[in-house]
From TrEMBL:
Residues 1-18 form the signal peptide. The keyword Glycoprotein does not apply. InterPro entries: ABC_transptr_periplasmic_BD (IPR002491), Bact_iron-sidero_bind (IPR051313), TAT_signal (IPR006311). It holds the Pfam family Peripla_BP_2. PROSITE patterns: FE_B12_PBP, PROKAR_LIPOPROTEIN, TAT. The keyword Transport applies. Gene3D superfamilies: Nitrogenase molybdenum iron protein domain. This is ABC transporter substrate-binding protein.
Length: 329
């Protein structure tokens, strides 16, 4: 089911970014002294010394973890119903930190305070709002520790990862560590492979979709951080007609599945059934040329925001695109 969380995760609502947030460098170091960092809301965070007790929303925690930083706590949906780690947790070892407030709209301020945090880090999936931080809790949270936001709003995911790398460095992580250097190189190579493949298939029409029992959703590639990267690399995404106030999707009935001709369909893996195992229930999808040609592939919008996690996803996409051919004319 598409919830507010699942609809927006990994997405942005506009292309606006505060310019100062990208240009101002953090200060402070391991030897002590004041620490400053301007986040993507344009908020300057100041601490008497570099923060060491960091609490992060699980998506941010996964990004920082792969850069060598170890938060003391994480909040947001990190586990499945059976207790195993959710995809959003990435490589985070959930036994090595305190997990709390996994339910959307709830933030346990007392559990946050018990961790004696010096900084809270969270994605920005809606302009100026911290993901999984309820508006009602902001004042109480910021009375305990400052908050820092990393923007995903219309920002290609490579730039989002770079921003996490800047923050991780400011917090003392070693980006020259072998696993980080290797992951960055593999991400660069995988990105180039997508770009090279896309260059060989100019004019190919790719449509990103999701669905619920009642509606089909056509994804706007400029709104999603991950899809924005693919478009930047040259993948030819179809841009649907969306409401500027709700730019992530164009919502239609299943009867309009053929509204946009497409050579390739990338479906939201979180809602795969209408495009895979339950095609019989959605005959308008089954009749699509891309479906008939077998040119329908999974894409996970919840891939954790790190070089290490995205490189395999990009390699798989390259392999999928290498198998397709134009069919829409």
């Amino acid at each position: 089911m598409l919830t507010r969380r699942s609809l927006l995760l990994g997405a942005g609502a506009t292309l606006a970014l505060a310019a100062c947030s990208k240009s101002e460098s953090p200060t402070g170091g391991a030897t002590g002294g004041p620490w400053e960092f301007t986040d993507d809301r344009g908020v300057k965070i100041s601490r008497p010394t570099r923060p060491t007790a960091v609490v992060a929303q699980i998506q941010a925690a996964a990004a920082l973890w792969d850069l060598g930083l170890r938060p003391v706590g994480a909040f947001g949906k990190a586990t499945k119903a059976d207790g195993s780690a959710d995809i959003l947790a990435g490589n985070v070892d959930l036994t090595k930190l305190t997990l709390f407030s996994e339910t959307w709209g709830e933030f346990a301020v007392e559990k946050f305070a018990a961790l004696k945090p010096e900084l809270l880090v969270a994605p920005i999936q809606v302009p100026k709002e911290l993901w999984y931080v309820s508006k009602e809790s902001v004042a109480a949270i910021e009375a305990i520790a400052p908050t820092l936001g990393i923007d995903y709003v219309g920002v290609p995911v490579d730039k989002v990862i770079d921003r996490y790398a800047e923050l991780a460095t400011a917090l003392g992580a070693d980006l020259n560590a072998e696993p980080v250097v290797k992951a960055k190189a593999e991400f660069a190579a995988a990105s180039k492979a997508v770009a090279d493949q896309a260059a060989q298939q100019k004019g190919l029409k790719v449509l990103f979709v999701s669905g619920t029992p009642d509606n089909l959703y056509f994804g706007n590639p400029d709104a999603f951080s991950d899809i924005a990267l693919l478009k930047q690399l040259g993948v030819g995404f179809v841009v649907p007609k969306f409401d500027p106030k709700q730019p992530h999707w164009e919502t239609v009935s299943w009867e309009l599945a053929d509204k946009y001709p497409a050579d390739v369909i990338l479906y939201d893996v979180r809602n795969a059934a209408p495009f895979t195992t339950e095609l019989a229930k959605y005959p308008t999808v089954g009749r699509l040329p891309a479906v008939k040609a077998g040119q329908v592939y999974a894409w996970n919008p919840e891939t954790p925001t790190s070089w290490a996690q995205f490189a395999p996803a990009l390699r798989q996409l390259t392999a999928d695109l290498a198998k397709v051919r134009p069919i829409t004319g």
